[in-house]
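>> Question from a student workshop board

For tomorrow's exercise we were told to take the sequence and the ligand below, predict the bound structure, and bring the output to class. My setup keeps failing. Could a helper post the expected result so I can at least see what it should look like? The ligand is uridine-5'-diphosphate.
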Amino acid sequence: MTTILVTGGDGYIGSHCTIALMNEGYDVVVFDNHSTGFKSTGEALKDVKSEGRLLDNIEGDLLHPEDIDGAFREHHIDAVIHFAAFSQVAESMSDPGKYYMNNVAGTMGLLDSMRRNDVRRIVFSSTAATYGEPKYVPIDESHPQWPINPYGRTKLDIEYMMDDYDRAYGIKSVRLRYFNVAGADSEGRVGECHDPETHLIPNILKSTFRDGIEFKMFGTDYNTRDGTCVRDYVNVEDLADAHILALRYLENGGKTDYFNLGTNEGSTVKEVFAACEKVTGMRIPIKIEGRRPGDPATLVADNKKAREILGWEPKRSLEDSIRTAYAWERKKRGLTSSP
Ligand code: UDP
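>> Workshop helper replied:
Here is what the output should look like for this input. Compare the format with yours to find the bug.
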């Protein structure tokens, strides 16, 4: 049985990936410091009917070598999938030290522990934020990487670090550059739990629950088809599938590489809002606000490379993502019956 260490396995994307790994027959060791995120993946996953097992759920910190070395000592780990990171752009601007320490120094701690413990394969969650303000769309992997905030810069620093650790120590990596991740587990076991929540779809859906609190739409004067920002929303279960394919690629001797994960399709904020009204069957209260600082008008992925080399194919639609996200928001509030 192959065992995968998943750092940040209790977070939004990490918990979905843990389920996908178990469904594919991998054993999983979750390593998480529980500073943010779901905190109870172990509980949520106890009913997963799969060949793979959740072997351990370790509370530990990548900045503490004894924690991460302990995880490698206790389990025979074949490869790592690394999600653990802080990911809020605004916070990264007001407190960059927190981001460089946790994201960059934390990853260095992980890679050094992998060297010490002879683990040579890692899949890393990078981001479209490493590209910065787009020079052209759709964005392919050769687009310049000029991130415009500390969050994006920490992820780019890690990408460079991974190249250096391959050259010097033979650690092979796949960096997956996510566009806008959306949706929840289709069986309702895990979902998005950010605090504060800044993402579009959960924020629209939140406004279906609280009378009088409007959804705030940031900016309607962009140079796009309806004046609102265009983003490429990729379903979280499709994203989890890509991590499995990346792992297999490395298992088959693939070289260090990087791939965009998006759908090649953009949706405007107004289109997402309309789709949320359709899925929920509700009129959602809305307030038009000014632009949110730092939002580029359009971000859409060119995902050809992931299709060709990893064999990845996003299968779920924006409506699928909204439907599962809505079911999850209802479940969080104890509303388990269908709407
Ligand atoms: N957005 C919005 N209201 C919100 C949250 C987001 O209008 O409450 C807009 C935001 O300005 C951007 C798009 O939705 O144009 C996607 O934002 P999100 O934070 O989900 O992802 P980002 O693209 O910033 O990573």
